[in-house]
Write a structure and sequence with these properties.
Layout (H helix, E strand, L loop, with lengths): L2 H9 L4 H13 L16 E3 L2 E3 L3 E3 L10 H5 L5 E7 L12 E4 L4 E4 L8 H10 L6 E5 L8 H12 L5 E5 L14 H20 L7 E5 L5 H13 L4 E4 L20 E4 H18 L5 E4 L5 H9 L4 E4 L1 H6 L2 H16 L5 H4 L5
Parallel strand pairs: 3-4, 3-13, 4-7, 7-8, 8-9, 9-10, 10-12, 12-13
Antiparallel strand pairs: 1-2, 5-6, 6-11
Helix pairs in contact: 5-6, 6-7, 7-8, 9-11
């Protein structure tokens, strides 16, 4: 029995959040062996002006405080995204706030952005020693009266320490956050963040991509408005999608009615549909990262054919371990070869 099988079985005996914290501790302590992940020329890609060894990334939410960057980069990911981080420390919502839906291979979380704050986060980013692509996911504080100012502060703190920055406007666990996806609010926020980026560049920084993470729970008009704002402001990209507040009737697990955002397999179909819609509405002009429910190479390939240039996963790792990253990369290379694609870029949007 391999390391991941043993660790997974032990972890599932613990409460969900305790197991998550134990995983971070194991990674930080060097107890998780690095993965030997083969390299494939067909998986190399350039997105946002960044060269990725493969398109498979770790989604935000796993390493909230950027504590285990080097160990995570050793697991075969093409990139990792740390956070979500708030400008000031905040405890998040009361426990319990993370629930396994084992029968459905999903999770429900209502963390509410528990964070040690951006200063501790930045200090951890400075400690990294391994090369690799790292993004930072930022958000406003729960009680903030000025969202744009919060995002600007967080952006400035992480800007020179990461390869790209994701602006989270789509978690369902912070009251009012998803309102920032509305057309006027989003346009105003994008412009404010762009002004801060210009200031940082003028102060000597290089231009780093800033992308936005959107929800799956969008009406058609919402999707059209987001794309309109994105194109008008020439934003660098979108992550599609965050967790959902919807509860499919097919859910079987005991915790299925807990409040919070649902992730994992039950999210795959609706998130992929939104991805497809956004790609179609934008005519492929906006680089997209497909996230939500990926648990296999076939899932990742479906996201790519629906319009994703890169993909991210998290929940499936809870059930399958980090060995899944290698499996997805190997499987993607085989699927591309089967369908006659020389490179993953050629497959983007081919399922539309």
């Amino acid at each position: 029995m391999g390391y991941y099988s043993i660790a997974g079985r032990i972890g599932r005996l613990l409460p969900a959040e305790t197991a998550h914290n134990a995983a971070i501790c194991a990674l930080k302590s060097g107890l998780v062996p690095p993965a030997k992940s083969p390299q494939y020329d067909s998986l190399k890609t350039n997105v946002f002006g960044i060269e990725f060894a493969n398109p498979v990334g770790l989604a935000a939410g796993f390493d909230k405080d950027a504590e285990a960057i080097d160990a995570l980069l050793n697991q075969g990911f093409g990139f990792i995204e740390v956070g979500t981080v708030t400008p000031l420390p905040q405890p998040g919502n009361p426990k319990p706030r993370l629930f396994r839906l084992t029968d459905d291979e999903g999770l429900i979380n209502r963390f509410g952005f528990n964070s040690k704050g951006v200063h501790a986060f930045a200090a951890n980013l400075r400690k990294r020693s391994r090369a690799g692509i790292v993004g930072a996911n930022i958000v406003r504080n729960k009680d903030s009266l000025d969202a744009a100012n919060d995002y600007a502060k967080a952006l400035a703190a992480v800007y020179d320490l990461t390869d790209y920055i994701t602006v989270n406007i789509s978690s369902p666990n912070t009251v009012g956050l998803r309102d920032l996806q509305k057309k006027e609010a989003l346009d105003s926020l994008v412009k404010a963040i762009e002004e801060e980026r210009k200031r940082l560049i003028a102060a000597g920084g290089r231009r780093r991509p800033v992308i936005y993470k959107i929800a799956p729970d969008l009406m058609q008009q919402d999707k059209e408005d987001i794309v309109e704002v994105a194109l008008a402001n020439a934003i660098d990209g979108l992550i599609v999608t965050n967790t959902t507040v919807m509860r499919p009737e097919s859910l079987r697990s005991r915790c299925r009615n807990e409040k919070g955002g649902l992730s994992g397999k039950p999210l795959f179909a609706p998130a992929t549909e939104v991805l497809r819609d956004i790609y179609h509405l934008s005519q492929g002009k906006i680089p997209l990262i497909g996230s939500g429910g990926i648990a296999s190479a076939e899932d990742a390939y479906a996201k790519i054919k629906a319009g994703a240039s890169l993909v991210q996963l998290y929940t499936a790792l809870v059930y399958q371990g980090f060995g899944l990253v290698r499996e997805i990369n190997e499987g993607l290379a085989e699927l591309l070869e089967r369908d006659g694609f020389m490179n993953v870029r050629e497959a983007v949007g081919k399922g539309i």
